[in-house]
Design a protein that fits this description.
The protein has helices at about 10-35, 40-45, 50-60, 65-75, 80-85. The protein is an all-alpha fold.
Length: about 100
C-alpha cells in the first residue's frame, strides 16, 4: 500500500489522529490549570509563553514544544506520560537492562 495508503488518504488519517491527540492534551492541560485554580495568564507567565499560545494548546489547535511540555508537567506536578498520553496506558515497553 505504500506511505500514502488507499487513494492517497494517509495524510488525512494522520491529521485526524493528530487533531484528536492535540484535543486530548488540551483537555488535560485545562483540567490541571483549573484544578490548580490558575488563570491562563498565571500559567503563561509561569512557563514563559503568551496567553494566546496557552489558549491554542488548551483548545487543541496546536501542541507546545517538548521543553514547554516539561515545564507544564513540572508546574502541575504530573508526569510527562500522563500529560501527553493520559491515564489509560496499557502497553509500556520495559526498560532495557543493558
Amino acid at each position: 500500500m505504500g506511505r500514502q495508503g488507499v487513494g492517497g488518504h494517509m495524510h488525512e488519517m494522520e491529521a485526524t489522529t493528530t487533531k484528536e491527540l492535540n484535543k486530548a492534551f488540551g483537555g488535560r492541560l485545562q483540567q490541571m490549570r483549573l484544578q490548580g485554580d490558575m488563570t491562563t495568564a498565571q500559567v503563561a507567565q509561569a512557563i514563559g509563553v503568551s496567553r494566546q499560545a496557552l489558549w491554542t494548546w488548551e483548545s487543541g489547535q496546536d501542541m507546545p514544544s517538548v521543553v514547554t511540555v516539561v515545564k507544564l508537567a513540572n508546574l502541575f506536578g504530573v508526569s510527562l506520560d500522563w500529560l501527553l498520553r493520559g491515564p489509560a496506558i496499557k502497553h509500556t515497553v520495559p526498560a532495557s537492562s543493558d
